[in-house]
Protein backbone atom coordinates (compact mmCIF):
# COMPACT_ATOMS: atom_id res chain seq x y z
CA UNK A 1 0.00 0.00 0.00
CA UNK A 2 1.43 3.36 -1.06
CA UNK A 3 1.72 6.31 1.32
CA UNK A 4 1.49 8.60 -1.70
CA UNK A 5 -1.86 7.61 -3.20
CA UNK A 6 -4.88 5.37 -2.84
CA UNK A 7 -6.43 3.58 -5.81
CA UNK A 8 -10.14 2.77 -5.96
CA UNK A 9 -11.08 0.45 -8.80
CA UNK A 10 -14.75 -0.32 -9.32
CA UNK A 11 -14.79 -1.25 -13.01
CA UNK A 12 -13.33 -0.65 -16.44
CA UNK A 13 -15.31 2.36 -17.65
CA UNK A 14 -12.65 4.61 -19.27
CA UNK A 15 -12.95 7.46 -16.80
CA UNK A 16 -10.17 8.27 -14.34
CA UNK A 17 -11.14 10.30 -11.28
CA UNK A 18 -8.25 12.29 -9.81
CA UNK A 19 -8.31 13.98 -6.40
CA UNK A 20 -4.94 15.56 -5.56
CA UNK A 21 -5.79 16.83 -2.07
CA UNK A 22 -7.90 13.94 -0.80
CA UNK A 23 -5.96 13.31 2.43
CA UNK A 24 -4.70 15.18 5.49
CA UNK A 25 -2.15 12.46 6.29
CA UNK A 26 1.25 13.58 7.53
CA UNK A 27 3.87 10.81 7.78
CA UNK A 28 5.29 10.29 11.26
CA UNK A 29 8.77 11.32 10.15
CA UNK A 30 7.56 14.65 8.70
CA UNK A 31 7.29 17.39 11.33
CA UNK A 32 5.30 20.34 10.07
CA UNK A 33 5.27 22.05 13.46
CA UNK A 34 1.51 22.71 13.39
CA UNK A 35 -1.27 22.00 15.87
CA UNK A 36 -3.04 18.69 15.10
CA UNK A 37 -6.44 20.38 14.77
CA UNK A 38 -5.18 22.34 11.77
CA UNK A 39 -4.97 19.09 9.83
CA UNK A 40 -8.77 18.92 9.80
CA UNK A 41 -9.06 22.32 8.13
CA UNK A 42 -9.06 23.31 4.48
CA UNK A 43 -5.39 24.26 4.56
CA UNK A 44 -4.52 20.58 4.94
CA UNK A 45 -6.91 18.88 2.49
CA UNK A 46 -9.88 19.30 0.18
CA UNK A 47 -12.69 18.51 2.61
CA UNK A 48 -15.18 16.05 1.17
CA UNK A 49 -13.27 15.45 -2.07
CA UNK A 50 -12.22 11.89 -1.18
CA UNK A 51 -15.75 10.89 -0.25
CA UNK A 52 -17.29 12.32 -3.42
CA UNK A 53 -14.56 10.73 -5.55
CA UNK A 54 -15.25 7.39 -3.90
CA UNK A 55 -18.99 7.57 -4.52
CA UNK A 56 -18.39 8.58 -8.13
CA UNK A 57 -15.88 5.80 -8.79
CA UNK A 58 -18.42 3.24 -7.60
CA UNK A 59 -21.35 4.82 -9.42
CA UNK A 60 -19.43 5.24 -12.68
CA UNK A 61 -17.74 1.82 -12.40
CA UNK A 62 -14.34 3.37 -12.99
CA UNK A 63 -10.99 3.99 -11.27
CA UNK A 64 -10.04 6.83 -8.93
CA UNK A 65 -6.64 7.90 -7.65
CA UNK A 66 -6.65 9.85 -4.40
CA UNK A 67 -3.64 11.77 -3.17
CA UNK A 68 -2.45 10.17 0.06
CA UNK A 69 -0.68 13.00 1.85
CA UNK A 70 -1.65 16.45 3.08
CA UNK A 71 -1.06 19.39 0.79
CA UNK A 72 0.94 20.85 3.70
CA UNK A 73 3.55 18.11 3.17
CA UNK A 74 3.74 18.91 -0.54
CA UNK A 75 1.15 20.20 -2.97
CA UNK A 76 0.63 17.54 -5.62
CA UNK A 77 -1.17 20.06 -7.83
CA UNK A 78 1.79 22.43 -8.16
CA UNK A 79 4.72 22.53 -10.55
CA UNK A 80 7.99 21.28 -9.10
CA UNK A 81 9.39 24.82 -9.05
CA UNK A 82 6.18 26.56 -7.92
CA UNK A 83 6.46 28.89 -4.89
CA UNK A 84 3.51 27.15 -3.21
CA UNK A 85 4.89 23.63 -3.52
CA UNK A 86 5.92 23.57 0.16
CA UNK A 87 4.06 26.32 1.97
CA UNK A 88 5.51 28.03 5.03
CA UNK A 89 2.21 29.79 5.76
CA UNK A 90 -1.39 29.05 4.73
CA UNK A 91 -4.47 31.20 5.40
CA UNK A 92 -2.79 32.91 8.33
CA UNK A 93 -1.20 29.79 9.86
CA UNK A 94 2.56 29.31 9.94
CA UNK A 95 3.92 25.96 8.77
CA UNK A 96 7.39 26.23 10.37
CA UNK A 97 8.47 22.68 9.60
CA UNK A 98 8.59 23.47 5.90
CA UNK A 99 11.12 26.26 6.25
CA UNK A 100 14.06 23.86 6.37
CA UNK A 101 12.47 20.96 4.48
CA UNK A 102 14.38 19.17 1.75
CA UNK A 103 12.32 19.96 -1.32
CA UNK A 104 14.05 17.42 -3.55
CA UNK A 105 13.49 14.67 -0.99
CA UNK A 106 9.77 15.38 -0.82
CA UNK A 107 9.49 15.59 -4.59
CA UNK A 108 11.13 12.18 -4.94
CA UNK A 109 9.15 10.59 -2.15
CA UNK A 110 5.67 11.99 -2.83
CA UNK A 111 5.18 14.24 -5.85
CA UNK A 112 6.91 12.29 -8.61
CA UNK A 113 5.55 8.83 -7.66
CA UNK A 114 2.02 10.24 -7.56
CA UNK A 115 2.24 11.70 -11.04
CA UNK A 116 4.01 8.63 -12.38
CA UNK A 117 1.12 6.50 -11.14
CA UNK A 118 -1.40 8.76 -12.90
CA UNK A 119 0.59 8.32 -16.11
CA UNK A 120 0.51 4.55 -15.67
CA UNK A 121 -3.23 4.51 -15.08
CA UNK A 122 -3.95 6.65 -18.12
CA UNK A 123 -1.69 4.50 -20.29
CA UNK A 124 -3.91 1.53 -19.46
CA UNK A 125 -7.15 3.25 -20.49
CA UNK A 126 -8.34 3.44 -24.08
CA UNK A 127 -9.58 6.95 -24.94
CA UNK A 128 -9.75 8.12 -21.32
CA UNK A 129 -11.68 10.97 -19.78
CA UNK A 130 -10.48 12.57 -16.54
CA UNK A 131 -12.71 13.94 -13.79
CA UNK A 132 -10.70 16.09 -11.37
CA UNK A 133 -12.23 16.65 -7.92
CA UNK A 134 -11.18 19.47 -5.58
CA UNK A 135 -13.03 21.50 -2.98
CA UNK A 136 -12.86 25.07 -1.73
CA UNK A 137 -13.64 26.80 1.52
CA UNK A 138 -16.59 29.23 1.52
CA UNK A 139 -14.47 31.75 3.41
CA UNK A 140 -10.84 32.55 4.16
CA UNK A 141 -9.60 33.63 7.58
CA UNK A 142 -7.23 36.09 5.93
CA UNK A 143 -9.97 37.60 3.73
CA UNK A 144 -13.31 37.25 5.55
CA UNK A 145 -15.04 39.83 3.35
CA UNK A 146 -14.50 37.80 0.20
CA UNK A 147 -17.77 36.23 -0.88
CA UNK A 148 -17.72 32.70 -2.33
CA UNK A 149 -21.38 31.90 -3.02
CA UNK A 150 -20.79 29.30 -5.74
CA UNK A 151 -21.81 25.75 -4.94
CA UNK A 152 -19.42 24.38 -7.54
CA UNK A 153 -16.60 25.84 -9.57
CA UNK A 154 -15.41 24.62 -12.97
CA UNK A 155 -11.71 25.12 -13.69
CA UNK A 156 -9.75 24.73 -16.91
CA UNK A 157 -6.77 26.17 -18.70
CA UNK A 158 -6.73 26.10 -22.51
CA UNK A 159 -9.04 23.11 -22.97
CA UNK A 160 -12.55 24.22 -22.01
CA UNK A 161 -14.45 21.60 -24.05
CA UNK A 162 -15.87 19.68 -21.10
CA UNK A 163 -16.41 22.87 -19.11
CA UNK A 164 -18.63 24.30 -21.84
CA UNK A 165 -20.73 21.12 -21.81
CA UNK A 166 -20.86 20.80 -18.02
CA UNK A 167 -21.60 24.35 -16.90
CA UNK A 168 -25.15 24.57 -18.31
CA UNK A 169 -25.90 21.04 -17.12
CA UNK A 170 -24.73 21.91 -13.60
CA UNK A 171 -26.91 25.02 -13.68
CA UNK A 172 -29.89 22.98 -14.88
CA UNK A 173 -29.31 20.66 -11.90
CA UNK A 174 -29.85 23.63 -9.60
CA UNK A 175 -26.27 24.47 -8.64
CA UNK A 176 -24.81 27.96 -8.44
CA UNK A 177 -21.85 27.56 -10.80
CA UNK A 178 -18.61 29.51 -10.88
CA UNK A 179 -16.87 29.55 -14.28
CA UNK A 180 -13.15 29.73 -13.40
CA UNK A 181 -14.18 30.47 -9.79
CA UNK A 182 -13.29 30.77 -6.94
CA UNK A 183 -9.94 30.96 -8.75
CA UNK A 184 -8.72 30.45 -12.28
CA UNK A 185 -7.59 27.16 -13.75
CA UNK A 186 -5.12 29.18 -15.78
CA UNK A 187 -3.11 29.56 -12.56
CA UNK A 188 -3.98 26.42 -10.54
CA UNK A 189 -4.22 23.48 -12.92
CA UNK A 190 -0.90 21.62 -12.79
CA UNK A 191 -2.18 18.03 -12.63
CA UNK A 192 -4.63 18.57 -15.46
CA UNK A 193 -2.12 20.62 -17.47
CA UNK A 194 0.37 17.77 -17.24
CA UNK A 195 -1.82 14.73 -17.71
CA UNK A 196 -4.80 16.02 -19.69
CA UNK A 197 -4.05 19.18 -21.63
CA UNK A 198 -0.49 18.18 -22.59
CA UNK A 199 -1.79 14.90 -24.01
CA UNK A 200 -5.06 16.00 -25.57
CA UNK A 201 -7.09 14.04 -23.02
CA UNK A 202 -10.50 15.62 -22.31
CA UNK A 203 -11.22 16.42 -18.68
CA UNK A 204 -13.61 18.16 -16.34
CA UNK A 205 -12.14 19.90 -13.31
CA UNK A 206 -14.54 20.81 -10.51
CA UNK A 207 -14.30 22.51 -7.14
CA UNK A 208 -16.93 21.61 -4.52
CA UNK A 209 -17.87 24.04 -1.75
CA UNK A 210 -16.73 22.55 1.53
CA UNK A 211 -19.70 23.50 3.69
CA UNK A 212 -21.71 21.24 1.37
CA UNK A 213 -19.12 18.54 0.64
CA UNK A 214 -18.38 18.05 4.35
CA UNK A 215 -21.69 16.24 4.92
CA UNK A 216 -22.86 12.85 3.68
CA UNK A 217 -25.97 14.51 2.23
CA UNK A 218 -23.88 17.04 0.32
CA UNK A 219 -21.50 14.38 -0.92
CA UNK A 220 -24.39 12.31 -2.26
CA UNK A 221 -25.88 15.40 -3.91
CA UNK A 222 -22.65 16.28 -5.67
CA UNK A 223 -22.03 12.70 -6.82
CA UNK A 224 -25.59 12.33 -8.08
CA UNK A 225 -25.26 15.46 -10.20
CA UNK A 226 -21.70 14.87 -11.44
CA UNK A 227 -21.99 11.21 -12.46
CA UNK A 228 -24.29 11.67 -15.48
CA UNK A 229 -22.53 14.89 -16.48
CA UNK A 230 -19.16 13.11 -16.53
CA UNK A 231 -20.68 10.36 -18.63
CA UNK A 232 -22.12 12.86 -21.07
CA UNK A 233 -18.85 14.79 -21.35
CA UNK A 234 -16.94 11.63 -22.08
CA UNK A 235 -19.47 10.42 -24.64
CA UNK A 236 -19.18 13.68 -26.54
CA UNK A 237 -15.41 14.18 -26.27
CA UNK A 238 -13.47 10.95 -25.82
Automatic annotation (TrEMBL):
<protein>
    <submittedName>
        <fullName>N-formylglutamate amidohydrolase</fullName>
    </submittedName>
</protein>
<keyword id="KW-0378">Hydrolase</keyword>
<dbReference type="Pfam" id="PF05013">
    <property type="entry name" value="FGase"/>
</dbReference>
<dbReference type="GO" id="GO:0016787">
    <property type="term" value="F:hydrolase activity"/>
</dbReference>
<dbReference type="InterPro" id="IPR011227">
    <property type="entry name" value="UCP029730"/>
</dbReference>
<dbReference type="InterPro" id="IPR007709">
    <property type="entry name" value="N-FG_amidohydro"/>
</dbReference>
Amino acid sequence: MSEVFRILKHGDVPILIVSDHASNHVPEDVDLGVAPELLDQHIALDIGAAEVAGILAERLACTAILGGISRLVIDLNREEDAPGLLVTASDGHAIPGNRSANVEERLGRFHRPYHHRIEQLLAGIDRPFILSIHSFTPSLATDPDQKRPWEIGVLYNEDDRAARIAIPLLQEAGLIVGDQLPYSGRQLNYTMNRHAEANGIPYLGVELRQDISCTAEGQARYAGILAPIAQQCRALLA
